[in-house]
């Protein structure tokens, strides 16, 4: 085990702590054969804290998978708030529905099934926070939509933007790496946001996330 895995588990054990609904969500996702690519517990709690920090009443998630991050985000909603989460595959959405029901959050979350680039145009009202964690080759397009569906003061968070360091390889033939690089280029040229990215290590390996504040 790498030292950073041990540190991540220490952080989770002390600051995140065990949670039956979240543990059950991961177990159900694994039993259904979903890929083990959900956010870490520490990252999940960060999402929830960020939602609470901005007083989010409307949250958009692009990429539901088994609903693990949706549980964290929904727990961060302001009273009366709502989360819309977009998932391409009905198999994943079914697992997520059950997990959200078990966590007693189904009344706060709407899962829309279909390719996100098809379902995003159906949304209109601005969101206070958007979390992007779907197919990386379309990251730039997802960010454009997130910005269109934001307001000044909204946060946009994008996961997996370091890719084991491969993001610095301009010649990479990996579509995910090139998708992340296009995202960086788009954000860098976008005057309506102030943004940064943070490298992370832990139980999910070496990666990172970008966070953008919509300023105008």
Question: How would you briefly describe this protein structure?
Answer:
41% of the residues lie in helices and 21% in strands. With 216 residues, the protein is an alpha/beta fold.
List keywords for this structure.
216 residues; Rossmann fold; 7 strands; 41% helix; globular; alpha/beta; 7-stranded mixed sheet; 8 helices
What topology does this entry show?
Layout: H1 3-16, H2 20-31, H3 41-53, E1 58-62, H4 68-75, E2 82-87, H5 90-102, E3 109-113, H6 116-119, E4 129-132, H7 139-148, E5 155-159, H8 175-188, E6 193-202, E7 205-214
Helix pairs in contact: 2-5, 3-4, 7-8
Number of domains: 1
**Span between termini:** 45 Å
CATH level-1 class: Alpha Beta
Mean pLDDT: 97
CATH level-two architecture: 3-Layer(aba) Sandwich
Strand content bin: 15-25%
**Helix-residue proportion:** 40-55%
User: Could you name the CATH topology?
Assistant: Rossmann fold
Strand order of the largest sheet: 3-2-1-4-5-7-6
Q: Tell me the major beta sheet.
A: 7 strands, mixed
- Note poorly predicted spans: none
Coarse morphology = globular
Describe the structure.
The protein is α/β, with parallel strands linked by helices. Helices cover 41% and strands 21% of the residues. It has a single domain, classed as Rossmann fold. It has a 7-stranded mixed β-sheet, with helices on both faces. The longest helix is centred in the first third of the chain and has 14 residues, at 3-16. It is globular and about 45 Å long.
């Amino acid at each position: 085990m790498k030292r950073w895995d041990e540190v991540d588990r220490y952080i989770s054990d002390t600051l995140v702590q065990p949670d039956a609904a979240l543990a059950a969500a991961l177990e159900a996702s694994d039993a259904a054969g979903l890929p083990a690519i959900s956010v870490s517990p520490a990252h999940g709690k960060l999402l929830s804290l960020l939602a609470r920090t901005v007083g989010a009443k409307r949250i958009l998630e692009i990429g539901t998978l088994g609903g693990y991050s949706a549980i964290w985000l929904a727990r961060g909603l302001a009273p009366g708030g709502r989360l819309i989460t977009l998932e391409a595959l009905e198999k994943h959405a079914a697992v997520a529905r059950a997990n959200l029901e078990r966590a007693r959050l189904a009344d706060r979350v709407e899962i829309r099934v279909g390719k996100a680039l098809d379902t995003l145009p159906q949304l209109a009202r601005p969101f206070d926070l958007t979390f992007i964690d779907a197919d990386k080759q379309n990251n730039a397009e997802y960010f454009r939509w997130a910005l269109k569906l934001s307001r000044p003061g909204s946060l946009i968070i994008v996961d997996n933007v370091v890719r084991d360091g491969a993001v610095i390889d301009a010649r990479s033939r990996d579509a995910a790496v090139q998708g992340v690089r296009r995202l960086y280029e788009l954000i860098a040229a976008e005057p309506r946001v102030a943004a940064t990215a943070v490298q992370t290590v832990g139980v999910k390996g070496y990666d990172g996330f970008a966070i953008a504040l919509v300023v105008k």
